[in-house]
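Customer ticket, subject: "Can you confirm the structure for Selection and upkeep of intraepithelial T-cells protein 6?"

Message body: Hello, I'm evaluating your service for our small team and ran a test protein. I'd like someone to confirm that this is what the system normally returns, since I don't have a reference to compare against.
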Amino acid sequence: MASIMYKITTVFLILWSMNKVSLSVRFQVSSTPSVSAALGSDVELPCRMIPEMNGENMEIRWIKSTYRPYVHLCYYGKDDYTIQMPQFAKRTELLKENITRGIFLLRIHKVTAQDSGNYYCFVESTEHHGKTIVELNVTGSPSKHQDLAPKCLEAPQSCLSKEKSLPETSRDKHRIIIIICASLTIVSFVCICLLLKRLGYCQPQPSDKLTARAYTFCHSKHESVNGNVVGFNIKCEGPVTEDRTTPLVMNGKVNHT
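Agent reply: Thanks for trying us out. I re-ran your input and got the following:
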């Protein structure tokens, strides 16, 4: 039994270590300094990871002056428009043709004068995050919209800590997933132990020096003639032991003088 538990624990620790190593890979995020687009046209803002790696299981967040609401959010390969900036509603698209290579192009349809400014590509895994900046210049616009550098990007950890009162972020979702996986692992471990115990692997072996005790139950009957007891029968039964395999029966007669 001890060897089985040791093997199960060893396999679990190996899988957990491999998962931690794969998630802790460091990366950098880069882009071109600026992109120009004509008023009313479509534009693509570049963003990529160095070295190349699969971004399907990461959060890709394009933002402007604030961390939330965002310009576009792709979470684990799926687009999320729940907290998108109203001015970009139904106008953004994350191109996923090369997402497995760590390339995330943001396409903005029919750019306006208000779309000009700095855009930040924020990429986050469960163990690491990176960001880059690209400036969009919309030509033909009457004025250039000036964006202030978002404070959240200067100190992303402090920004995330201020969002505890807001709906859960991707980091909260990751924590919940890890807690659920750990709970399922513990429950599975307990179930395996109970199953092995039920099959007899965990039953203690009786010592050769111990002998089972006999818990005997006795029943008696008597015979009488004219109100006088003339005979009796006593029968004792109990669990079978090494030195007793049959019930004990006693018969007798009573003499009246």
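A couple of notes from the result: The longest helix spans residues 170-199. The two ends are 69 Å apart (CA to CA). Feel free to reply with more questions.
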